[in-house]
Each structure stands twice: as C-alpha cells, then as structure tokens.
Design goal:
Order of helices and strands: HEEHHHHHHHHHHHH
Shape: globular
CATH superfamily: MetI-like
Largest sheet: 2 strands, antiparallel
Number of strands: 2
Mean pLDDT: 86
Distance between the termini: 46 Å
Number of helices: 13
Length: 295
C-alpha cells in the first residue's frame, strides 16, 4: 500500500513538473526579475552599463510623477465610463434575451461575437470606422447633415471613441453572466409578487435585482480588473494620444520601458499598478464576506 501511494505521488509530480516549469519561466521568474529591476537604474539603450541600486527612488519618481497621476486618472475615468454603460446595457439585453421570443437563440449567439474577437482586431475595426476622412461613422453623419467628428484626433473625443469600442466588445460579458443568473433564479418569489399585484418594475427592483446583486458585483469586479489593464485597443486607436489624453497606466508603463528605455521606472510602475489591483481584490472580498455574513 505504501509503495502504491509513493508511486502515485511520483507519477503526480512527474506530470506536474512541466506545468510548474512553464509557470516559473513565464510568470514567476519575470515577476522576480521585474522586482529586481524596479530597485535599479537600468537604461535599456545601454545594456552593458551596470545596473546601479537606487532603492525606492524609482517608486518615489513614479508616485510623484504628474504623468503617472494623469494616467491613473484617465484609467479610472475610462473604467467608470465603460463599466457603468456595460452593466446597464448588459442587464437590459439579458432581460430581453431570456424572454421566450422567436429568434432569441440566434440573437444571443450573434451578440456574443464581439467578446470572442481579439482586442487588437476590435481596435483595427473601430479605427476604420473612426477614420476622419473615409470612416463609415462620419459618412453616416454626413448623410443626416452633421459635420464629421474628430473621433481619434481630438483630445475631447478620443477617450469617448475608446469607450465606445470597449463597450461594444465587453457588454456581452455582462449579458452572458446576467442571463445565466436569471435562468437560475427561483420562481417562488415571482409568483408571490404577482399575487401581491406588483408591477413589472416593482418585481425587477425588489425581487430580481436583489437576487442578481452578488452576480453583478462579481461581474463588475472581474471587468474592473481587466479594464484596469486595458492596452490593446488604446494602442491601436490612439497610442495614448492626442497628447496624453488617453494614456492609461499600461501605456505609461510601456512608454517608460520601451520608449524612454527606463526599465527600472517601468518596472516600478508595474508593481504600483499591481498593488492597486491587489487593493481592489481585497476590498471586493471584504465586501463579499460582509454581504455573506448579513445574509
């Protein structure tokens, strides 16, 4: 029996070793090396210059940088803009698609397509739509007598252009999660609400919405983590411009690392971004535990 257990454990370790090796090479080692660089002055354009230890200087520079604070503000603003609309539209679409109407199955499949497309491809599609002279959006606006909008060349419109593309791609995420939750709700509260003579709005507000709250909070949290790291669409559409009007945290880190070649500052910015994400995760689980305790 002991030999069998030992043999099973050895087989388990043999099969686990390749996965652990890949995890170490692709995740753990790069993170350790980035942590090492964040405490060094390292110019990527001068690879043979010694990497001098500078302590917390890179972190102090990042946290006191107006560019970093501006990138953090734009990231937070873009998150609020996109997540609020995605939540509203996603819940509305889920309520519609869970109705027993003809063609809902086909509609559900078609509406999930944007979420399955690579963000780079989404950025390219919307780049063609936003193109100032030949873009389809400005062409349709001209048909109704409206002058074209400088979607990606105006500091006022660029962030809205990015938000629209992100909303188009990720609203199906909220739709899918909410629709799955709606189909699993217990029918008894709805029957009681109908007997009491409640309107549809009252049923949604006092019966459906409270039951959906844990799911909606979880969906918001997952999307917030992903939106905080947004990069692909912005890089394709505006590259952080015009000026720095759409430079989010990920682009700030990219520019510090691969435009200005300051790998130490870029690595420090990455760990500051990671710390913010960890804080968001901690707050989410505390809120989840509090709600669980109350129920």
């Amino acid at each position: 029996m002991a030999n069998t257990a030992k043999r099973t454990r050895n087989i388990f370790l043999i099969f686990l070793l390749p996965a652990m090796l890949v995890l170490f090479l692709t995740t753990i080692y790069p993170m350790i090396y980035a942590g090492y660089l964040s405490f060094r002055s390292y110019d990527l354009a001068k690879p043979f210059v010694p990497r001098v230890f500078v302590g917390w200087a890179n972190y102090a520079e990042v946290l006191s940088s107006s560019d970093f604070l501006n990138a953090l503000w734009i990231t937070a603003k873009l998150m609020v803009m996109t997540l609020s609309v995605q939540l509203f539209l996603g819940v509305g679409m889920a309520l519609l698609l869970t109705q027993r109407l003809p063609g809902m199955g086909i509609a559900r499949t078609l509406l999930l397509i944007p979420m399955m497309i690579s963000p780079v491809i989404v950025g390219l599609v919307w780049l063609f739509l936003y193109f100032p002279e030949l873009g389809h959006l400005n062409y349709f606006l001209s048909l109704i007598g409206t002058s074209g909008i400088p979607w990606i060349t105006s500091t006022n419109w660029a962030i809205w252009a990015i938000a629209i593309a992100d909303i188009w791609q990720w609203t199906p995420f909220f739709m899918m999660g909410t629709a799955a939750a709606l189909t699993s709700l217990s029918p008894e509260p709805y029957e009681a609400a109908k007997i009491d003579g409640n309107s549809r709005w009252q049923v949604f507000r006092y019966v459906t919405l409270p039951q959906l709250k844990p799911v909606l909070v979880s969906l918001l949290f997952l999307r917030a983590i992903d939106a905080f790291k947004i990069y692909d669409i912005i890089f394709v559409l505006t590259k952080g411009g015009p000026g720095d009007s759409t430079e989010v945290l990920s682009l700030f880190i990219y520019r510090q690392s691969f435009t200005f070649w300051r790998m130490g500052v870029g690595a420090a910015g990455s760990f500051v971004s990671l710390a913010i994400i960890v804080i968001l995760i901690t707050l989410f689980f505390k809120s989840l535990n509090r709600d669980t305790a109350q129920t």
